Amino acid sequence: MSELSNVQLQLLKEVADLHEVPEGAYNLRSNGKSVSRNTTANINILTKTEGSGIDIHIKDGTVNESVHIPVVLSESGLQETVYNDFYIGDNCDVLIVAGCGIDNCGTQDSEHDGIHRFYIGKNSKIRYVEKHYGSGDGSGKRILNPVTEVYMSEGSTMEMEMVQIKGVDSTHRTTLAELKRNAKLIVRERLMTHGQQNAVSVYKVMLNEEGSSADVVSRSVARDDSYQKLDLCILGNADCSGHTECDSIIMDNGRILAVPSLEANSVDAQLVHEAAIGKIAGEQLIKLMTLGLTEQEAEEQIINGFLK
Amino acid sequence: MLELKNISFGADSNGSYKEIIRDISLTIPDNRFVVITGPNGGGKSTLAKLIAGIEQPTGGHMLLDGEDITNKSITEKARLGIGFAFQQPVRFKGITVLDLLRIAAGKTISVSEACDYLSEVGLCAKDYINREVNASLSGGELKRIEIASVLARNVKLAVFDEPEAGIDLWSFKNLIRIFEKMRTGNIQRSVIVISHQERILSIADEIIVLADGKVSKYGTKDEILPEIIGSDHVKGVCPKVEEGGNCDV
């Protein structure tokens, strides 16, 4: 990764915790081009012949391997839509780390729209981590509109950690999932907006067959003049169980619309939703201040813990 | 040494001004174990909050080791060495017991050091160190973690607001041991405990009885305890608990 600038290396660290070339399979995309790639005996990465993006093929029975596909943008004014498709075989146990970092010091808007589709084989277990990060002090906006589609076969499990903590001016995140028999989806979304940022996060999870389950939890903090809309919907179309939760801290002039929703299309669907929005409790600040923190330090500790 | 000189505190209540603390003057020397007791509504918790800076006095002066701390903020008082354990511990989503103890210690203490503080309050450290300080913990567990957070601070003056509320006998015995240890340590430290418990009153150096916002009695344990035993606001331990059972003391 020696050909990357310091800005790009910093973005990589933020979105993928990468300081070095990752072990296992990876594809690094920088300023609209794939700049380095590694494949393994079980994981192949191919450039799409039509359109922009890559296909990732993971063989049946691949366990304890990882795929990193970070994207960094450091040129102002770059706008791209990229399709990444994951074809995951049966009985796999794999970690997938994606994420996009944008540094925009210029005046033109930079935008990366990553469309990720996962086709997960029977009884496979996937842990997916996606982090989005923006930096740079230019007037050009940093825009990320990710779409994630997940198609889960019988007995498969997917744990998704979706994180966007800093610096993205505008985001519209869409996540769609369809689950077959005994498939299980766990989502932990963490979102923080500040300044004039606008974030919309939409989930639509369809529990289509017996024994499928989903637990979709979003924790968010809206600071300054930012706005968030959290629209988390679970559809129960069979004997299934689903839980969706939006838990938010509101600060300054922030605004949040939380819409956890359920649609039961089967008498055997067991669905629960909950939502809470509130400012940081005064007694929490006081407790940490009695331990020697300033009010601002106490606030940061509470937010860091909440979004951890 | 903590000195309170003519401390008063009042607040608006239902449209009229109510004086909660009335002209209290007290001196708490170093290395002293003082228990404040008295009837409910007498101003005990308010006085503790005034000492910790959570409330600001409306009159009088407060000095710590000769320095005027009357109008210092909560943070400033904490940094000067005043610790405060809440009667109702606060819950935090996402902050673990280890995080809280590290914040309290003001430095990155090792897991082993953090475990020592938890063992002090009778919690098996490995079960708790990575738990979140949230609603999944019982009232008694939170209370012990609250006390551990004050122990981790190594303060000059520790104020405990009804530490015995909501903990079982085993923890209660531990609690007395913790207070004794705080007293006999090398650091010149004073402990103020607000309590109705006879057991805690019986290990005090001095007892203050606060009623109607004023000090109604102040003296050594031997002077005061015989006078107040049997009064409504001094509680003994439930006999079932004495036999080894569990009970909310």
SSE topology sketch:
The complex is a heterodimer of chains A (308) and B (249).
Chain A: H1 6-16, E1 25-30, E2 33-38, E3 43-47, E4 53-58, E5 63-73, E6 79-88, E7 93-103, E8 110-120, E9 125-135, E10 142-144, E11 147-152, E12 157-166, E13 170-179, E14 184-193, E15 198-207, E16 213-222, E17 227-236, E18 241-250, E19 255-264, E20 270-278, H2 282-290, H3 295-306
Parallel strand pairs in A: 1-5, 4-6, 5-7, 6-8, 7-9, 8-10, 8-11, 9-12, 10-13, 11-13, 12-14, 13-15, 14-16, 15-17, 16-18, 17-19, 18-20
Antiparallel strand pairs in A: 1-2, 3-4
Helix pairs in contact in A: 2-3
Chain B: E1 2-13, E2 16-28, E3 33-37, H1 44-52, E4 59-64, E5 67-68, H2 74-79, E6 82-85, H3 97-105, H4 111-120, H5 125-128, H6 139-151, E7 157-161, H7 169-184, E8 190-194, H8 198-201, E9 206-211, E10 214-220, H9 221-228, H10 239-242
Helix pairs in contact in B: 3-6
Report on this model:
The complex is a heterodimer of chains A (308) and B (249). Chain A is mainly beta and 308 residues long. Chain A has helices spanning 6-16, 282-290, 295-306, and strands at residues 25-30, 33-38, 43-47, 53-58, 63-73, 79-88, 93-103, 110-120, 125-135, 142-144, 147-152, 157-166, 170-179, 184-193, 198-207, 213-222, 227-236, 241-250, 255-264, 270-278. In chain A, α2 crosses α3. A 10-stranded mixed beta sheet of chain A has the order 2-1-5-7-9-12-14-16-18-20. Chain A is 10% helix and 57% strand. Chain A has 3 helices and 20 strands. Chain A has one domain. In chain A, a hairpin with a 5-residue loop joins β3 and β4. Chain B has 249 residues and is of the alpha/beta class. Chain B has a single domain (32-58, 70-224), classed as P-loop containing nucleotide triphosphate hydrolases (Rossmann fold, 3-Layer(aba) Sandwich). In chain B, the strands form 2 sheets. Chain B has a 6-stranded mixed beta sheet with strand order 6-7-8-3-9-10, with helices on both faces. In chain B, strands 2-1-4-5 form a 4-stranded antiparallel beta sheet. In chain B, α3 (97-105) runs parallel beside α6 (139-151). At the A-B interface, α2 and α3 of A face α2, β6 and α3 of B.
